[in-house]
Specification:
Elements (H helix, E strand, L loop, with lengths): L5 E2 L3 E9 L3 E8 L4 E8 L7 H12 L14 E5 L2 E7 L15 H19 L15 E3 L5 E3 L6 H9 L27 H17 L9 H5 L13 H10 L10 H12 L12 H4 L1 H17 L2 H44 L6 H19 L5 H6 L2 H26 L4 H15 L4 H11 L4
Antiparallel strand pairs: 1-2, 2-3, 3-4, 4-6, 5-6, 7-8
Helix pairs in contact: 1-3, 2-4, 2-7, 4-6, 9-10, 10-11, 11-13, 13-14
Length: 449
């Protein structure tokens, strides 16, 4: 591929924007529309065999409808001379690579929020899409300043197919500097937590000017190295969240959905309450137990006065325990409701797979409702009664989606694949809400003739 040539009789190659392990990206002009686009061509030197082209087409059909503001959605897919390619919107501001070491704290919070939001969408797909190569080069800056993930949808199978067409010099499965420690073990099966680590390493680099462990990535961490201090005048809260993303243990990292909510909280200047950390009551339970033991001794050795003082202290201790419990529950309930409300807004856009956002929101509302029932304060219980209303409204939306999918499964009954897909989507909803109850209500609402 050469500059100033026409690719596939349509795209005029103006200049090379970048080259990766498996592909080249060109700034091109679509001669049919006169619009500038980014042309990403895979296996540009060798092309792929029939099996490889089939794998490529199948894999990208899973993400071609990636309608999310933080995902750079392909406009078109095709192949030329056995070289598969994607036509993508051209981002004049380019990737964040040119901004390494220049990020402010606000920029870091925004990057965490936007990329985590895009990853949450990918991870919620069925089957989940794991990016496997989050790094500055693969995060673009939109015209409005939002950050967008590109190069998603390249699965392990597809990477393997592409590697076979390349020389061993270009056989890296991801960029080592951003790879999590577990990727260097015997079982290096990609998991969602890999993407969270890569995002943490990316944000670390954007602030400090270098990745946490240089070019060796999580390999150094796997051998026992500690996460280096993020130097600079950044808040302890931001540093803590980045360190959590870089945890050696993948299960101690936040999920993409949790990370998005934490970043939103941090961006607003509020205190982040982590779901995996102990409450004040849990932290001081041993202390309370020791105090209780001392008081018991005082009761045995003292008289009525001491016994009275102990009773007062016990009542105070019980009130403190209730307050600590309620504060902890309140924080968790608020976090769950906030997350659910955001997911409902995503579902209301009715983009591809929108019911998944509704179903996740419904699960969060139910979890919040169960937690609210453990509150030991009637005023706090009353405060969360609107959860029933939120659930009812969401159940109505889920039922409408169910009815729509059932109707479409009948409409496309001649196409077994499409019909089956809509049936499965309807089935996912009917396994969560009582569909029969809604249908009965509708029957009763129909006036008799």
């Amino acid at each position: 591929m050469e500059q100033n040539n026409l690719f596939h009789d349509r795209y005029f190659l103006e200049r090379l924007l970048g080259r990766g392990n498996f592909s080249e990206v060109w700034l091109a002009k679509d001669t049919k529309t006169d619009i500038k686009v980014a042309l990403k061509v895979y296996a540009p030197a060798t092309g792929l065999d029939d099996a490889g082209l089939n794998v490529f087409a199948r894999e990208f059909s899973l993400v071609v409808n990636a309608n999310h503001k933080n995902l750079l959605k392909p406009l078109y897919y095709d192949s030329c001379d056995r070289k598969p390619y994607l036509v993508l919107p051209y981002c004049e501001k380019g990737s964040i690579m040119k901004l390494v070491g220049k990020f402010s704290e606000q920029d870091a919070w925004r990057l965490l929020r936007d990329v985590a939001s895009g990853l949450a969408w990918l991870h919620a797909m069925n089957p989940p899409v794991i990016h496997q190569d989050i790094k500055p080069d693969n995060i673009m800056v939109a015209d409005n300043g939002d950050f967008m993930i590109t190069d998603f949808g390249v699965s392990t199978h597809l990477r393997s197919t592409l590697r076979k067409s390349l020389s061993s010099a270009f056989s890296s499965a991801g960029t080592v500097a951003y790879m999590a420690p577990e990727r260097f073990g015997k079982d290096n099966t990609p998991i969602m937590a890999n993407d969270i680590y890569s995002l943490g390493a990316t944000v670390f680099e954007m602030l400090s000017g270098d990745t946490p462990f240089g070019d060796d990535g999580g390999l150094v961490q796997k051998k026992g190295a500690e996460i280096p201090e993020l130097k600079g005048d950044y808040s302890p809260q931001l540093k803590k969240l980045i360190y959590k993303c870089l945890s050696t243990d993948p299960w101690k990292r936040p999920t993409a959905e949790q990370l998005e909510q934490y970043a939103i909280t941090g961006l607003s200047g509020n205190t982040i309450k982590y779901v995996d950390e102990k409450t004040a009551w849990q932290k001081h339970k041993l202390l309370f137990s020791v105090v209780g033991g001392v008081l018991v001794v005082a009761i045995i050795g003292g008289g009525m006065l001491i016994r009275h003082q102990v009773n007062v202290k016990r009542e105070t201790r019980e009130k403190m325990a209730i307050m600590a419990h309620n504060d902890s529950v309140q924080a968790e309930v608020s976090q769950l409701v906030f997350s659910a409300d955001s997911l409902v807004q995503v579902g209301d856009l009715h983009d591809e797979g929108y019911e998944r956002a509704y179903l996740k929101a419904y699960d969060n509302y139910e979890s919040a409702e169960e937690l609210a029932q453990t509150l030991q304060d009637s005023a706090n219980v009353d405060r969360h009664k609107n959860l029933d209303d939120k659930k009812s409204q969401l159940e109505r939306k889920l039922y409408d989606a169910y009815a729509s999918f059932q109707e479409k499964s009948q409409l496309f009954k001649d196409d077994v694949e499409i019909s089956t897909e809509f049936k499965e989507r309807a089935g996912n909803i009917s396994s969560v809400i009582n569909v029969a109850e809604f249908e009965n209500k509708q029957e009763k609402a129909v006036p008799e003739k």
